């Protein structure tokens, strides 16, 4: 339908005449008396044609035409004047007027000029509509191709990277981040790009709570941070929340409605792609497992590890590699037979499979050696996993059955990216070195695993007449004998300084003695500790005068004569392992101290069991 016609003339007779003529011929007309009112009307309404007098008070017809064409270069204008020399004049042509009519205007001439102008306006409108439709079709086709591409690639890592790129592209966003639901149901950061600062992105979010309603609506929503507008795009497939994308820093300053519409469409396809990618990964893993143990083969594991190394480098993440070996498996095979050897291996793999996450990968490297890859796990977490793994193997029926006839000599080693190396071979080499250290450890050479905490303490302390501790150049140094009276206090102060230097480093410290006092050096050294100190510190002993301390947890042990006779420090962290146990009496202090990780870890584990302390 044609738009209205604007008639501008200070002569009321001409305005009325033109309005009646045009209205009689089916046109809608708005008539005003000067250019100012005409510009106000043009700001409110789009006119297909403007008929204006040339000579008017204030702004004349030529100036009005120029102002109108500034707003819309295609605006159709017919000039009307009492002067006969206006038609075809240079001024009229420069103004861009479609036609010029002389007063008195012939009705047929006006209707002919109006019909021509409206036909040109109609053709332009149709051309613009066709152009917009073609652009919309091309845009939709391009979006459709992007969606199909997300469905055509089963590789989960590729999908996560590509999705952030595609969402940012279609929404003109300079930054994007993606969280994907893991096996525990948490939204875990998997990819990000653009102007985002990694430290301000949540590593993990719960899809429940405040996010729950928004996610299940499956509709993008807008928010605003300190810098710009932010769009969140839920990824939902068949009612199941698969992930959440965040888009920010739009080039235009704000996201438009079409951005939300396109993001939802792409997000729906991406959710299906991610869900299928996870299923494909599961199927691939099924086809790459060892028949006897269901562990992955080494080829798949090295490929998976190379992808994890790429992700860790790209996003500044960490992961840990663990190696386990059954050192005496050949002896089990000779003495107990091949069936028992296979049973022991199956039992160990079953035990490990029960405590790993879906994202963790276990592989069989040889008949007696296994690899584990633990994404998003630091070195301290890897040490704790080794402890859990050994405990789990002891409780697995098949492994226990073999172990009762011939104890299994299982040893584990851990390394962490990038702390211990930046490629697979380096990490494996570091694991094997730590396995060698454990083989040479006092823990193994003195067969300390089965001893309770205080029995092990007595054995390690010994007496002045006890034989010297065995020494092996592969193991960390361990000593017993007379120690300085101030060593207990100085060591607390040094550990406190180390924790303050790196508050984010995880660790576990137990300080035990006859009394828990406020003036302990560890309490003074951590007085100004930040609230997010990653290490956990416990004080064990009789309650005396300890005031509340934000970094320390007291464990009151009243009436325990053994702890009343001893002082000890057991420290295990990402960067250090140390134990000091001492007994004062008769003017001298007799002690044992070591940096043997296996001994320190064993002592801590037994202390936790002795006093029912919560493991880290």
TrEMBL record:
InterPro entries per record: Bact_response_regulator, CheY-like_superfamily, GAF-like_dom_sf, GGDEF_dom, Nucleotide_cyclase, Rev_trsase/Diguanyl_cyclase, Sig_transdc_resp-reg_receiver
Q: What keyword terms does UniProt attach to this protein?
A: Phosphoprotein
Q: Where are residues bearing 4-aspartylphosphate located in the sequence? A: 53
Please report the stretch or stretches of sequence annotated as the Response regulatory domain: 4-118
Cross-referenced Pfam families, in alphabetical order? GGDEF, Response_reg
Question: By its UniProt entry, which PROSITE patterns does this protein fall under?
Answer: GGDEF, RESPONSE_REGULATORY
Q: Provide a GO biological process annotation.
A: phosphorelay signal transduction system
Q: GGDEF domain spans which residues?
A: 317-451
Protein name, please?
A: Response regulator/GGDEF/GAF domain protein
Organism, as annotated: Myxococcus xanthus (strain DK1622)
